[in-house]
Design goal:
9 strands, 9-stranded mixed beta sheet, disordered N terminus
């Protein structure tokens, strides 16, 4: 079994030598203003105009849009982002998270704008028992029980309908190509988690943020069904049948978000489980956006290619 982690660093090296946001009190005020700026009507229109998950370069366009919005915001404050290379290269949110990651008040202020960074689960450790909900029976099951053939790695992708990085994997053939190439050698599950960009939270325009955050299990199941319906209009890669290993099987996280909190996997992440251990954890959202040319399905393909080449070569 190949054990690998996508990155050894939790966050990119973004910490500046100077403090472009001033002291902590000033930084907190700026962060609150940034949140308002991100939610403004003008910013939402920019997201609507630029995000198209049917195009493979969507992640590149999304990052460029973020950076452009951040530059405009900082210029309004009189801050020249170009003087701070990490800030201009990675954007405001990763910069703030790297610099203030130990500050509970600031990180709480960013709730809904951050997540999926640090997990207590490590590569090589035994996969913890984590309940998920079957879409067909609404009953709890351990996520590892979805492994039909224990000799194959179980690839678990977590995301939601309002995560454009999932949509681009589905709508540009990423998932279908992975299934075609590896469905006889690996098994695939999608755990539907809380919305990445709900209409009543951190919006990415009205097109992406079309539904509200789930308040009940019915809400979450309905959102997952909307995703499956959207997939049917494209390549039909998803199924609610827990035994259909020809497709990517969809289950949902509990309303306590147990899977998400265990693996810190929001808004999108992938985990491979083999021999009851965590064999691989894909990049978190910060690292994924640091190299937007590669989709999450590219990361899955690279790991599986290495996994089988190593054992078969």
């Amino acid at each position: 079994m190949a054990l690998a982690v996508e990155h050894t660093q939790i966050m990119p090296d973004l910490e500046p030598k100077k403090r472009p946001l001033g002291d902590r009190t000033s930084a907190l005020k700026i962060i609150k203003r940034w949140k308002d700026f991100m939610m403004s009507d003008d910013t939402q229109v920019r997201f609507d105009n630029n995000i198209d998950p049917t195009k493979r370069d969507m992640q590149i366009t999304l990052k460029e849009t973020y950076l452009s919005i951040d530059r405009d915001f900082l210029e309004d404050l009189g801050i020249n982002a170009s003087l701070y290379k990490p800030l201009s290269a990675h954007g405001f949110l990763p910069f703030v998270m790297a610099f203030y990651k130990e500050d509970k008040e600031i990180m709480t202020e960013l709730t809904g704008f951050s997540g999926g960074i640090i997990s207590d689960v490590t590569v090589g450790s035994y996969a913890p028992e984590v309940p998920v909900i079957s879409m067909e029976t609404r009953e709890e099951m351990d996520v590892t029980d979805l492994s039909v053939d224990k000799t194959k790695p179980l690839i678990i992708l977590s995301a939601s309908l309002s995560c454009p990085m999932l949509k681009v994997c589905l709508f540009t053939s990423g998932v279908s190509q992975i299934l075609k190439k590896y469905k006889n050698r690996a098994e695939f599950v999608l755990v539907y988690i809380c919305e990445a960009h709900p209409a009543d939270g951190w919006k990415l325009g009205n097109k992406v943020s079309s539904i509200k955050q789930h308040q009940t299990m019915n809400d979450r199941l309905e959102a997952a069904r909307l995703l499956i319906d959207a997939d049917k209009d494209h390549l039909n890669c998803l199924t609610t049948d827990p035994h259909d290993t020809e497709k990517m099987r969809v289950v949902v996280d509990t309303m306590s978000n147990t899977f998400t909190s265990t693996y810190q996997c929001g808004p999108i992440r992938v985990i491979a489980i083999e021999d009851d251990r965590v064999a691989w954890m894909g990049p978190n959202i910060v690292h994924l956006m640091s190299n937007p040319r590669e989709l999450m399905t590219d990361k899955i393909d690279a790991w599986l290619r290495g996994r089988f080449d190593e054992n078969e070569g």
